[in-house]
Amino acid sequence: METQSLDLTQHRCPMSLLLAKRASQALVTNEILQIKVVDKASLADMIAYFERQLFEVRLEHADAYSFLTVIKK
């Protein structure tokens, strides 16, 4: 199954959370969405949202940004 990508490095909350929610709604079971984020507040909000929605959540940090990987269950 193809991994979807979403680059939110140019966005901050609440827009980044809204865009991540919209992108996740199109996912089917076991499909993956990888989100690139720089804003720590946005990242925290997205993690909380996806955990409440019962997505599998994985987080990786790079130098200037983070990758949030969510899998629809």
What is the number of independent domains? Answer: 1
Mean pLDDT across all amino acids? 95
Class by SSE composition: alpha+beta
Could you describe the largest sheet, including whether it forms a barrel? 4 strands, mixed
- What is the CATH C level class, in words? Alpha Beta
How would the global form be characterised? globular
Helix-strand topology string: EHEHEE
CATH fold label? Translation Initiation Factor IF3
Quote the distance from N terminus to C terminus. Answer: 14 Å
So how many helices?
Answer: 2
Strand coverage percent: 25-35%
Instruction: Give the proportion of residues in helices.
Output: 25-40%
CATH superfamily: TusA-like domain
Radius of gyration: 11 Å
Verbal overview:
This protein has 73 residues and is an alpha+beta fold. The chain has one domain: 2-Layer Sandwich (Translation Initiation Factor IF3). Helix content is 33%, strand content 32%. The chain has 2 helices and 4 strands. It has a 4-stranded mixed sheet, covered by helices on one side. A hairpin with a 4-residue loop joins strand 3 and strand 4. Helix 1 runs parallel beside helix 2. The model has no long low-confidence stretch (mean pLDDT 95).
Topology:
Blueprint: E1 3-7, H1 15-25, E2 32-37, H2 40-52, E3 56-61, E4 66-71
Parallel strand pairs: 1-2
Antiparallel strand pairs: 2-4, 3-4
